[in-house]
User: Fold this.
Amino acid sequence: MNQRRQKDILSHNIKDGSMPSPKKAAILEAATKMFLDLGYGATSMNALVAKIGGSKATIYAHFASKQALFEAVTEHVMEKNMTAIHSDELKNTDLKKGLMLIGQKLLELVSSDHHIRLSRLVIAETPNFPEIGRAYYDRGPSIANKDISNFLYSATQGAEKTLPDPDKMASHFSAMLLHKIFLERLCGNCNVPSAKKIRVITEDVVHGLLKIYNLE
Assistant:
């Protein structure tokens, strides 16, 4: 089986909104809790089988390896918010409104308890298991930046002022939006921000970004 085909099978298909089977969903829920509670290295397929019942063959029918399972768990943690970021709703949304929607969903995701725990796991265990760092980046920051860049490009087509580099602006937006609150949450210096705080932070960042790029 080639790598691309394997990824298609293992993926949650975030972009098309498909739902996993009940068994696959149960495996994902149990694996998510186990990875976040125990870490990547201490989680085993045998322990997962003991938790959910059945056999390892059942798990391997859905996930080809422990790494593939972790990749699916990463998607599972990010799924709801990432779906909104590359939603078809953004296709007909103006620049400011779209950035507000994207920004609030991203900030909600990145500051969530599940994501913070996942981030701590990745930071702690990537030196010993580099594959989980790659899996996290490929299924989180990389996708988000690409989707933001695509939105910026489409939202400014035909406008009087065009973007010099949508990828650069997307990275700038993410950094302005997430850096402070993510570090505070990662280091345990604040609680999950309220919806109001998320909105205020996003409004401030969007205003600053559009001013910097002369797109107000």
User: Anything to note?
Assistant: The CA atoms of residues 18 and 183 lie 33 Å apart. The domain at 3-212 is CATH 1.10.357.10 (Tetracycline Repressor; domain 2). The radius of gyration is 19 Å.
